[in-house]
Structure formats: C-alpha cells, structure tokens
Amino acid sequence: MFRSSPTLFNHGAPFLKLIFFLLLGAVIIFADFKLHATEQIRAIGNRVLFPMQTLLSKPGMYFDLSSDYFQTRSSIKKQFEEQSSQIDNLRMMANQAEALESENSHLRKLLVLQQKASVKSLAAEIIYNPTTPNSQKLVINRGTIDGVKLGMPISSDAGIMGQVVRVFENSSEVALLEDRDFSIPILVERNGLRAVLFGVGRSEPLELRYVNNLADLDVGDYLITSGIDGTYPPGIPVAIITKIDRSSDNAGAVIACKPISKLNHYRHLSILLYQPNNTAPTPTESEVVKNKLKKRGG
C-alpha cells in the first residue's frame, strides 16, 4: 500500500519548491542569527513548554531519588550491622584482656606470696563453684596426688579464704569463710583478743561469736589467725570488723565482719601445706602427780 505525497508537493515544479524552501530557511537563519527575530518566539515557546518538561521529568527524577534512597539505606544498614558486630567483638576482647590482666596480677601476687611466706604453698585452679543457697564451696584441681590433705587452709594473696573439707585423687572440695558450717579461731590484731569467726551463708556477713558486750572491739579492727587450733598458721589476715551491736537485749555483742579476701573474685588460689609443730613434750603421769603434790604442799 502506497501513501500519496502531501498536497504541497503535488502542484508545481519540485525544483522551484526546493529553491523556495532553501531560501526561506536561509532567511530564517539569517533573521535568527543576526537580527534575533525568533528570540521572542523561542522565549514564549520555552515559557509554555517548561512546565510540561518539568512535569514530565518528575517521575524519572523521583524514581532515581527513590532508587538512591533505598540503595543508600541498605548500604548504611549493612555498614551499621558490620560496625555493631565489630564494636561487640572489640568490647569482648577488651573485657577478656581486662580479665586476663586481673588474673595475671593475682597470679603474680600469689607468686610473690609463695616466695615470701614461711609456709609452703601449692597453686590451684577453681574447677567449678556449686551454686547452693547456704553452702559456699569450691572444687579445685588439686588432690591427694598433689599432696593435699584434709583440713589444709586455702588462701589468696590477701588472706585466708577457707579450708579443704574433702579430698579426692585429682581434686578437692573447699569450704569458704561464708559457708554455714565454717568456723575459724581468730585473734584481734590490735589487742590480742581471741574469738571464733563463723560463716552464716552465701553473701552474708561473717559473725564473730562468744564475745561479751564489754569486749575491747572497734569497727575496722583486723582479725588474723590465732594458730591455736593447729590448722591455720598464725598471723594470716582473715577479716575486718564492719559492725558492732552492743544492745542490752543480747547476752553478747553481735559483731559482723567482712572477709579480707574477695571470695568470689578469684580463679586461682593457694593451698597452704601447713603442718603444725606438735613436737612439744607431753608430761608423763608421774610428772603430773608430782605437780599436783607440789600444789597441794604449797
């Protein structure tokens, strides 16, 4: 199917028409370039067409903005998650480094204590800590194979922590000062007063018992091992008095104490391989009789 030519090209000589339109175009170009005759027409056309151009460009612009927004948001979210993960890892590493530094500091103190102490000691590590409301016990990685015996004292670099109450071949159970069944003879460092310190339970203050209301005791007095029980070496710090209740309702003073050692802060501790000197001569029966006769005669 053939289309017919426009009406303008169906009449007259084609060559003359070509010449006419070429001259017309040249005139228009000359008038626009030299005389600026079409600027007003172009301005009017631009004024009419500009709102349409702006309106037609809005969907594409909004699409580009939306695409950039979602891409940027996704990128920022991914970066945020990566940075959050890095921060968590760095925080964990910092906490681990701090814990290791604290542990190393405690081990160095234990090493210095072993070098200075007159009593031989054996380093031990806590395996686990059974969580029971009243009992305060630990299980350590030393046993009979290491020379640990029942009743041996346990200490940190600061002072007494407890005592071995059960021994196995490769492990031992330790009762800490807070244990309800724990007691230790002590001496008030300031004046030499003797008493017995008892555990009350987990996270509870220790109690100094069998002390009357008139006893010379003050808050802040240090309590050390007396050594009279033959279990603990004398002179090792145990606790400090934090509260004294001398109310008349009680037969004796109620005295609360705080352990010198931080019982639940250590991973390593020392077992004191203490063997008391029990070589003092025991009086014979005849000597006892002689002493009684001398007293009667006197």
Report a brief summary of the structure.
The protein has 298 residues and is of the alpha+beta class.
Radius of gyration: 48 Å
Query: Main β-sheet, in a few words?
Result: 6 strands, antiparallel, barrel
Number of domains: 2
Distance between the termini: 160 Å
- Low-pLDDT stretches are 278-289
Task: List the helices and strands in order.
Answer: HHEEEEEEEEEEEEH
Number of strands: 12
The CATH superfamily of the largest domain appears as Rod shape-determining protein MreC, domain 1
Number of helices: 3
Lateral strand order in the biggest sheet: 1-2-5-4-3-12
Mass-distribution shape: rod-shaped
CATH fold call of the largest domain = Thrombin, subunit H
State the CATH architecture of the largest domain.
Beta Barrel
CATH class of the largest domain: Mainly Beta
* Average predicted confidence as pLDDT: 76
Structural class: alpha+beta
Helix content: 25-40%
Beta-strand residue percentage: 15-25%
Oligomer: single chain
